[in-house]
Amino acid sequence: MALMGKQKLEDGRQGGDRPLLSLLTLLLVLLPLHSYYALYPLEIESDVRRGFAQRDGRSAKEFRAFAEFYKLPFEGLEIWVVLASPKKSLGKETIPVGQPLLDEILRLDAFVQNFTAPFRSGVTTFHDTSSGEDLNALLRYLAQIYPLTAIMPDVQIQHPVTKVFGHNLQTSSHFFMVNRGLPENSTLQTAQHVALWYMNKAENYEETKRLEAIELGLFQYFLKDDFSDLFSVEMFGDQVANAEMLRGTIVSVGLFMLGGALMVLFMLFMFRHLTWSSRIWMTVGAMLSPLLATLSTFSLLGWLGVRTNSIMCITPFLVLGIGVDDAFLLLHQWRRVRAEGVLRKDDALKRVFLHVGPSMAVTSLTNTLAFGIGIMNPAPQMSSFCLGTALAVLLDFIYEFAVFAPIMVMCYEERPGGNEKQEPSKWLPSWEGLVNLLFTTSGKCAVIAMAVLMYLIAGHGLRGMHPTFEPAKTFPGDSELVHALRSFEYLQTEYWPVNFVTKRVPGTWEEVAEWEKMVSSLENRDHCYGRSRTTNFLRQFYEGSFTTWELTF
Known about the structure:
about 55% helix, membrane
């Protein structure tokens, strides 16, 4: 504490004697740090799926294994869906399944794969980020064989299993809410949604932006609802979700800016004992310190390679609240010290630092530690947000002494009569009565009982909470993506595939039996459809081919 007090005295002497020099020196020192904005554009990224998932958690490891199976990069792999849904203008709940629908679905698939979107000074195409995997080959095959259903009994397009020349084909990955009211394995007649799946890869920032341009272009085009007379088109993909999340953040930033404007008006009112020019300078100085701390934080994180995400957009407003509070403490103590008759500004500033410095240090330290603990959050976006906020709070503590204090010394000027002693407030007696009541035995018991009741209510609420993450809550209220997400959630209630990848094919009949035992145990678990919905080519091979040819391992 002695060392800190001595340093505060030195800072007070420098800021009090030569405030303009100390302020300009700080700005020159910060110039190389802030040169980041001149060299690199500030890019705000958002990742709804990976940003809130546990870093190197089970889901990440499973998705990595899935990507390795397709020999694709894990970081840039994305699977997204385009849905054909009942035509909104017709008011129907299902789509008739037939040759016209299948032809329109193939036209939709061709439109998506041939889509181009403006990108910087040129254009980008779907194939610029395509993985090369065709996830919709089954739909093209069904469109080709559909005319045969009327003349060949061996070709029956049913749901969820279509039988074609003795082979079973799963249709549950493309057709949803099928034949409502009809038994399973009946002829495919109606569907509520038909899905086209796409797998793209974006291995770097450039490819991510290209994929984002394609998805956003398709999303905006399908909002016009004029692609087909048979169905409306919806889509859900990571890049569209990220863009909508970022738009929601921008809307929130607008509300925070409104709060900042109200804060400015509040400060101008509270500084009414100062001249108008002094009010303006005090308000600017009170806001300059936290905003400069935020700029320094984002610059430092940028030099360190930490990207700015959408949640970090609220960091300036959090730091602004803390910084303005510190500015009020400094200004109030400065007014008191000056009223005591201390004429030398350096002496007055030293007294201010000695009185207010420890309080500000404790507040800043506790906030820094609180957000510092959040750095260990397994979600990457939350971890980066806590890192940025903790660093910004710490820098704001320094800038309050290095930026606001010199401005206060240079520009503080009271209007005539502004330092007169104010009369006690008419509400003071009622507050005194309340304080006296709280210090009685009954008052203390009431406070304890109220605290216990609040903890019990909070504990009951926490027990009933179920931790979950819903992407829709990150979107603006007017987002059209909410409707597509609702349709996608309907799909998930009916179709939620679980992929198992084996690194070695069974080599003996004993291993085949062990494999079959494992698959059967999975099929009989709760919420599984069973054997009929399993896509297992090994099973089809040894159940079909082994009856004719002998298997040799």
